[in-house]
Amino acid sequence: MTRRLDRRTMLRGTGGALLALPYLEAMAAPTVVSEVPMRIACIGLNFGLVPQLFFPEQTGKDYVLTDRLQPLKEFRDDFTVFSGLDHGVNAQGGHGGVHAYLSGVLSKNSSGMPEANISIDQKAAQFVGAKTRYPSLELASGKGDVNNMLSWSASGVAIPRVGDVQVIYDSLFQRVDPSLRDRTLKELAVRSSILDLVKTDADFLKRKVGARDRQKLDRYFDTVRSVEKQLVQSREWLDKPKPPTDYRLPADANTLDFVDRVPLYYDLMRLALETDSTRVITLALADIGVNYGGFAITRGYHQLTHHGKVPEYITELSIIEQFHMEQLARFLKQLRSVEEPNGKTLLDNCMVLFGSGMGNASSHSNKNLPLMLAGGGFRHGEHKSYFKDSAKKVATPAANLFVSMLQRFGMEIDQFGLSGGTLSGLEVQS
Fold it and tell me: ∠310-311-312 over CA atoms, to 5°?
């Protein structure tokens, strides 16, 4: 057995001169297989997918790939397609129900819940804590309206999303200027002092108001505590170097059309997970922006989603939806190409949830959400239906899937939101 050497080991030359050893593999700290972390990446489409082009007609392992699933052909054994999952009456409201995609509960209906409408990514981020530079990353390709707010804190507050590609890159890889370090520390100290004053005033106010206002203040305190944790974590990581990378963004990345910019988000997601800068990421894919996003279409994305079964509309809409599936396939390929210390790939160690809080944009339905899960060490390769009746009118809570994912993430949890437990039939590979 090779004995691990200390990097400070020195060799004595003639005359007693000390020579530093070069870096040897034997000096590397041994990798403990059990320490390889599980990750979560959640990708949400604002406008859903055309149901009949996404859901297979057959269930089980022998289902026929639909048009939307064809780009994922080589990953057939690495993902599961779900039908019959949604959030029921708790997330109805057309476009206004999309923001409940990862929480299962509309923000307006979350009053009185133990953790309001916390989303699965933020629940996982609580578990990660300060183990990574960022407990979670919230990214977005489009404008930041409420439908784009997929991440919600335990106090029911929407987590802002970052769409600026350069900002994301700099957050992950730009080295901290030593001359700015002291100034950053002072800014963090000032913010902490302000929070202390705010808490003191709020504590006093809490003794003067009624029960409903106290409940609102409790949520406010939850938000303050969350900010405090972020400040502490920022201080802890300030002196830790960011990982190096050879990856470079193209010039003027933020001015690129949607079709050229979206791959950059996926690239940065893969790098963030691979470097363990974070273990939890969400990406909201919303409006395609100006110039029709660079797609060969003649109508706006939102307009096309309300196709009313008009063939010309569906044809153009399919161009956008197929692009999203191709980008997902590209992302899965990137994850599968990364080998991890436990002999598995990054895809094996990352749960990739892809879908939407919109079941059918054409009819403004939030039922039967188009959902699929890839990687994460689950036994995949099937289309699983979770409708509770033959008429396909009663679905299973999608939050059950979230419980299964959180357990796989390492959390001891049997309830999330309004779930009824884990998702039956979704098993981990032996």
Answer: 95
Q: Six-digit token pair at 266?
A: 């996926």
- Mean pLDDT, to the nearest integer, of 280-289? 94
Residue that wins the pLDDT comparison between 14 and 428:
428
Q: Is 158 helix (H, G, I), strand (E, B) or coil?
A: strand
CA distances from 197 to 151, 171, 191, 227 (A): 28, 29, 10, 14
Q: What is the CA radius of gyration of the chain?
A: 24
Q: Is the pTM here over 0.90, yes or no?
A: no
Can you tell me the distance from the alpha carbon of 235 to that of 188, in angstroms, rounded to the nearest whole number?
A: 8
DSSP, res 208: T
Q: Is residue 402 within 8 Å of residue 42, measured between CB atoms?
A: no
What are residue 59's phi and psi, to 5 degrees?
-110, 175
- Minimal CA–CA distance to 148: which of 307, 312, 306, 356? 356
C-alpha 106: how far from chain center: 19
How far does CA 330 lie from the centroid of its chain? 17
Half-sphere exposure of 234 (CA within 13 A, CB side): 18
Amino acid identity of residue 189, one-letter, is A
Strand 371-375 with 350-355, pairing: antiparallel
Say which amino acid occupies 290. V
Query: In the structure encoding, which two tokens stand for residue 194, read together?
Result: 């302000």
Give yes or no for a contact between 159 and 138, defined as CB atoms under 8 angstroms apart: yes
Cα separation of 46 and 358, whole Å? 7
Alpha-carbon distance of 137 to 121, in angstroms, equals: 9
Residue with tokens 């307009």: 303
pLDDT in tens, 96-116: 999 999 999 998 888 778 888
Contacts of 86 (CB under 8 A, 6+ apart): 359, 366, 367, 368, 369, 395, 397, 398
Record the tokens describing residue 6, joined without a space.
Answer: 């200390």
* Residue with token string 């890839």: 374
Q: 10 Å Cβ neighbour count for 373? A: 24
| Residue entry with tokens 């990406």 | 283
- Is 236's pLDDT higher than 80? no
Please count the CA atoms within 13 angstroms of the CA of 212 that sit on its side-chain side: 1
DSSP string, 40-66: EEEEEETT---HHHHS-SS-BTTPPP-
* Host H or E run for residue 341: none
Structure tokens at 285: 């894919």
Read off the pLDDT of each residue in 247-275 and give the average, rounded to a whole number.
Answer: 96
